[in-house]
Design goal:
alpha/beta; four-stranded antiparallel beta sheet; five-stranded parallel beta sheet; 12 strands
Length: 234
Amino acid sequence: MRHRILLVEDEADLGNVVKQYLELMDFEVNWQQSGSDALEDFKNAPESYHILLIDVNLPGMDGFELAEHVVKINSHVPFLFLTARGEKTDRLNGLKIGADDYVVKPFDIDELVLRIRNIIKRKQPATNPDAVKAKNVITIGNTQLFVDSLKLVTEQGEEIVLTPRECDLLVLFFHNVNRVIKREEILTKVWGSNDYFVGRSLDVFISRFRKYFQQNPGISIKNVYGIGFVFNVK
């Protein structure tokens, strides 16, 4: 099966080159040149795309706004930003929305293809029915993580809707309780890369998780200075 990509890029020359190269790499590509057109296209078939490539500097609706709409329609679809804006605040904003990656122009097209394939591979569902069943709900004490619906139910019964990235990170923690997980391991497994910006995003997520579990004395996240984190469960 060919993986289907929604490419949103207003620069005609770049968009044409990226589309043609991705098609040579056996992807099916739908190219839109504005955020509004891309959003209408996505609304019509929100389950049909395996990944979205979104330029930030789009006319009218920018890439960040488009991504926020996309997440509301289908929170499971992965997306990455293509942009000439390399400012730290922009990259952190993109990651907070839930982007799976952030590629700054000019970029190497082969590296982009590799990133796309890695993201799609991580998002592929398990083919073994038993594995799928085991993955759907993870329980620790009275806390449950519903992976498919991106929902965390705390010990007090509070339901928290997660971003896809938050869910991926919690799955990693839930499967590695009471052991040190190195920052490098977390960043590589969950983000697919290890740099300053995704590291900052990880710290933001850890702060959120501590708030999620603050009423649960049986769960805590300990920072092991200079190494990583321990997801403690009593």
